[in-house]
Every structure is written in structure tokens, then in C-alpha cells.
User: Which sequence fits this backbone?
């Protein structure tokens, strides 16, 4: 940890496309489990007031002043049992780190169980009572390396250090890919900005309804395939460490890509080349997707990358399958042509401009 990070002002980050996540890493060592729990500063602020002087920013000094109470608060929200016997915990450390979506506080503590640890039952009650969308991502390290997820519906899990199969890892990564695209408002906004004019063709300064569903589907196929190829390329490059762009600027670039896609609907710069726009701007979104995998880690990275990318495509395909037939049926109506297309594009443009300002 560089000393500079300890002295840096830990201002609450601007809203990003990632949801509220915490990251719990459990490493077994005989009858002891070494735990590391990364919790976002913004989430800790939900649980207890941190801004002691009320200036709108949270400093390391303010966190350090509450070290004991914060450690007790966080450790008290993780229950570990072995064979129905409670395991006890002792605090080890507290520090600050940067994740792809802002500053997190890392709580280190040791969990002592009655006997050698092979399987434990863990209950995560960190944030689910105040944020039903929160997820607790758990990575188990030992002879193998696997991960699983706590949700508001599944707060208690039996965790085993037995290695998971490639099929299990693929399925878990796929479900997280679906989840990520469906809750990623900036990714969804980009996709809808590309889909809104799919049932029209540009003639001079006007959008004219297409006459063929086949023509519409071909246009959508070109756009969606271009977006898929683009984010798959950058997802792979970033996941395997070939390139490592600064997460903050990736978030800014994603917001700007949404601005440009929506603006192109209102002032067509590429009226007949939206597939090229989808590819060029979609490259940034792959870097955004990889943040979820980077924070998870795990062995057999290629399985996680493949599953996560497939999940993104499943979610994206479901959206296209629901939206395009409806848009085609309504394309000649005044509501869609005069309000949904320009109005929707303007809403997306406004939101994306706000995201850009926040992230800057």
C-alpha cells in the first residue's frame, strides 16, 4: 500500500455502471480462515455516518477514528459456523484500496473454527436489509480457487474448498454476465440508443419507416454483431492483461459513447453506418465489463471470460427480442415516430451527459 493512498481524500465516487458489491476472500489455514472483506466507502456510509465534519467528503482520518467500531460492525455481519459450532473472529487490519468503481475499505480478520476447515456455513448480512440489490461476492482460496455469490435471497451458503468444475464456473459466470447487462444502465442506454432508429431509414432530414421486418432484423443484426465483436475483443484483452486502461477513464469513455450514440439519432452523423458506430464505441464497453471479472479473479480465467461474455449476449438478445418486434409494430404511429424516437434519444443523451459530468 503506498503511503499516498492513506492520505488521499476518500470522496464518494460518482455513480458508475457497477451495482453495490462487496468482495469477501476466504483463505483456509488449518483450523483458521484468513478473511479479507472489501466494502465500498459509499456502502459503509449507508450503515453508519462517516463524514464527521459534514464537509461532504470522507477522509482516511475520519475512517481511522472509527476503526474499532467499523471492524466490529463489519465482522458482526459475517457469521461462520462449522458443524453447527460458531467460529470466532479477531480483527487483523484495516486499509483502503481502489476498485474499478471507487474506494473500498479492506477489513482483514482471522476466523477460528473448532477443527480443521474443509467446509463452513457462512451467513452474509452486510447490506441486504438496506439494499436488496447488493451482492456479496466470495472467493475461496486454498488448493483450488473458486467463487460464489450471496444475494438478498441467498444470504447463507455452505462453502467448501473442494474445486468447482469448469461447468459450474461457466454457469456462474454466465449468470453474472446476464445480471451485469441487465443492471448496467449505461450499457442498456447505449444499446437502446442503437435500437431506437432500427425500424427507420434516413431520407434527407427525416426518419422514414422501413417496410420490411426482414430489413429491420438485418439492420439490428449488423448493429448488435458489431457491438458484440467490439466488447468481446476488449473484454478478452483486458481480462488477460494485454491492456489495462485506467478504470476511471473507461467509465468516462463509456458515458461519452452513450452521448454520441444518442446524439447520432437526433443529428445523424452516420445515419447509414450505425454498425460502425456500434463497433467503434462498443470497444469501451468491453473494458467496462471486465471490471466485474477483475474483482472476482479465480482460476481458469478463460472459463469465466467465456461464460461472462455469453451471459452478456443472452441478456442483450433477450432485450432485442422484446424491443424490436414492438418497435416495428409501432413504427408508423405518431407516438413512436414523433415522441419515442426523439424523446427517448433526448432522455438518453441527457442522462449520458450527466454521467459524463459525474465521472469527470
Assistant:
Amino acid at each position: 500500500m503506498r503511503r499516498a493512498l492513506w492520505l488521499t481524500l476518500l470522496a464518494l465516487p460518482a455513480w458508475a455502471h457497477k451495482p453495490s458489491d462487496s468482495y469477501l476472500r476466504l483463505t483456509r489455514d488449518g483450523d483458521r480462515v484468513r478473511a479479507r472483506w472489501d466494502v465500498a466507502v459509499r456502502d459503509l456510509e449507508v450503515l453508519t455516518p462517516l463524514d464527521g465534519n459534514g464537509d461532504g467528503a470522507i477522509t482516511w482520518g475520519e475512517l481511522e477514528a472509527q476503526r474499532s467500531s467499523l471492524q466490529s460492525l463489519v465482522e458482526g455481519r459475517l457469521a461462520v459456523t462449522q458443524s453447527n459450532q460458531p467460529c470466532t473472529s479477531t480483527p487483523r487490519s484495516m486499509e483502503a484500496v481502489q476498485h474499478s468503481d471507487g474506494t473500498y475499505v479492506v477489513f482483514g480478520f482471522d476466523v477460528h473454527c473448532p477443527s480443521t476447515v474443509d467446509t463452513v456455513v457462512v451467513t452474509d448480512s452486510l447490506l441486504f436489509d438496506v439494499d436488496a440489490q447488493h451482492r456479496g461476492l466470495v472467493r475461496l482460496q486454498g488448493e483450488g480457487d473458486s467463487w460464489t455469490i450471496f444475494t438478498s435471497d441467498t444470504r447463507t451458503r455452505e462453502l467448501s474448498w473442494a474445486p468447482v468444475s469448469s461447468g459450474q464456473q461457466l454457469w456462474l459466470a454466465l449468470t453474472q454476465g446476464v445480471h451485469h447487462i441487465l443492471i448496467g444502465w449505461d450499457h442498456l442506454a447505449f444499446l437502446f440508443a442503437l435500437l431506437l432508429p432500427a425500424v427507420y431509414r434516413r431520407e434527407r432530414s427525416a426518419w422514414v419507416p422501413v417496410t420490411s421486418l426482414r430489413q429491420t432484423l438485418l439492420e439490428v443484426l449488423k448493429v448488435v454483431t458489431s457491438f458484440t465483436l467490439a466488447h468481446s475483443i476488449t473484454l478478452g484483452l483486458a481480462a488477460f492483461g494485454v491492456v489495462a486502461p485506467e478504470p476511471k477513464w473507461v467509465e468516462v469513455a463509456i458515458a461519452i459513447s452513450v452521448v454520441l450514440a444518442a446524439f447520432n439519432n437526433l443529428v445523424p452523423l452516420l445515419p447509414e453506418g450505425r454498425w460502425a458506430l456500434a463497433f467503434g464505441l462498443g470497444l469501451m464497453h468491453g473494458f467496462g465489463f471486465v471490471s466485474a471479472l477483475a474483482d472476482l479473479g479465480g482460476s481458469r480465467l478463460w472459463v469465466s471470460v467465456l461464460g461472462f461474455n455469453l451471459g452478456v449476449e443472452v441478456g442483450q438478445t433477450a432485450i432485442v427480442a422484446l424491443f424490436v418486434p414492438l418497435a416495428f409494430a409501432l413504427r408508423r404511429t405518431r407516438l413512436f415516430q414523433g415522441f419515442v424516437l426523439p424523446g427517448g434519444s433526448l432522455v438518453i443523451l441527457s442522462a449520458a451527459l450527466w454521467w459524463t459530468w459525474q465521472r469527470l
